Amino acid sequence: MSAALVDAAPIDAASLWPELDRTCAYINAASRTPLPACVLAAGEAAVRRKAATPWDIGDTEAQKEEVRTLFGELLGGGVSSRDVAVLPSCSFAMSVAAHNLRGAMRARPAGRRRVLVLEDQNPSNVMQWQALCDDEGGELLALPRPADGDWASALVAQVDSGSVAVAALPPCHWCDGAVVDLAVVGAACSARGVPLVVDATQWLGAAAPLEPARIGACFVACSVHKWLLGPYGACLCYAEPSFWRALAGGAACSRLLLHAAALGFEVPPRHAPGIVGLRTGAGMPPAAELVRRLAALKPRPVLVSERLGVIRVSPHLYNTPDDLRCLLDGLREAVRPASRL
Question: Which Pfam families does the UniProt entry name for this protein (predicted)?
Answer without folding.
Answer: Aminotran_5 (PF00266)
